[in-house]
Known about the structure:
The chain has 10 helices and 17 strands. By secondary structure, it is of the alpha+beta class. The protein folds into 3 domains: 45 residues, no CATH class; 181 residues, Beta-Lactamase (2-Layer Sandwich), CATH 3.30.450.40; 156 residues, Alpha-Beta Plaits. Strands 7, 8, 9, 10, 11, 12 and 13 form a 7-stranded antiparallel β-sheet that branches. The protein has a 4-stranded antiparallel β-sheet with strand order 15-16-14-17, with helices on both faces. Strands 1-4 form a two-stranded antiparallel sheet. Helix 2 packs parallel to helix 5 and helix 6 crosses helix 10. The longest helix is centred in the middle third of the chain and has 32 residues. The chain is elongated and about 85 Å long.
Amino acid sequence: MWKNTVSGVGGQVPECRYADVLAWRRRPGSRWVVSKPELTYHGVRSNAQSRACRDVQRMKNRRGSKAKQNPSSFTEDLRALHDISMELAVASDVQELCRKAVELGRTVLDFDRIGIWFINRDDPAWEVGTWGTDENGELRDERNSRVRRDPTVTPEEFYHGNLPILDLPDSIVFNHDHEPVGRADRLLAPLWDGRLIIGELAVDNLLTRRPFDEERREIVVVFARVIAHLTSLKRVESELRLLASTDSLTGSINRRTALIILEKQIGSCLRNGSPLTISIIDLDGLKLANDRHGHAEGDEYIRDVFRSLVKRVRVSDTVGRLGGDEFIIVFPDCVMGEAERIVDDVAGAVAASSRDRSYRRSISCGLASLSEISPDAETEVGDIRHFVDVLMDLADKRMYMAKRRKRNERT
């Protein structure tokens, strides 16, 4: 991990991670001034992200061993929640958000044990784990944990949003496998995303037995709201990324994503000297199916061909829909002959699906191999697009040649 020592007016700041402390700014009583750019090993951070990361680190350092004996005031906890929310907002996905929330809930807000559970969207009777704190106060991965909701502990009004927090004093507490580990005061706060309850935030005092006063209860409620709101945003971001990269009809990757993968595979094969083949596949008679039986039949034709492709290609191969009636298969580490055998197997399966139909199903294929491109071509990153264009052009021309041969055979 990238470390560095930065110089200040009064000396040097000890070695620190740029991911944790990105910039020191002059404040009343502070002598440190840094002119370095705000960089991390992931790229450039915004000023807001840098301040959030710095402030969370500052809060961690301020607390230390005395924090457990002297809990911070309500005002300090609210300020810490603001800093934490800024740090959680830059998480890449829901799981990273939950991991950070548990870690910061333990180290900054000084909760004994904390866990985040989501209601299973496929079966609301169950809750699934994310991340939590173990019986020694350490971070624990609980993503494989499932617990059935207990109405005797959490009443239905809790999941209807009628209770901001559920107080369970001196109750049995459990680990991530729902095994009892002792008795403690326990708080449950609903994760409310603005429309419905999506899970719960669980906090207990198993380690220190420090009682929860009204201010600490309020901090738990606000923390749960922050987690729920950001979780909702991350889920929407994930859905948007999925929509931007997949084909809605078949569920396959779309043209843009397929070409990105092709570029990466070409670059890898050029570096390793391994073969690569692509195939462009066109559905014959799709227009006839649409005209005679409607677009529902045409859509089913496309989905059937996609299922045949996925069933017969290798695990390392990539299937994507280019649009309309065309698919592409990327065969890394595969010579032309092997790819042709797989495509012929798919063609046989598609032809067999024509039985009991008033139209004939078939596919036309065009293959092209990386070895067909001049070996003395430049292989710099900027030239990989040239290989993509040549391969696509070769495969496309051969696919149309195959279609013309079929028409000539019929006539």
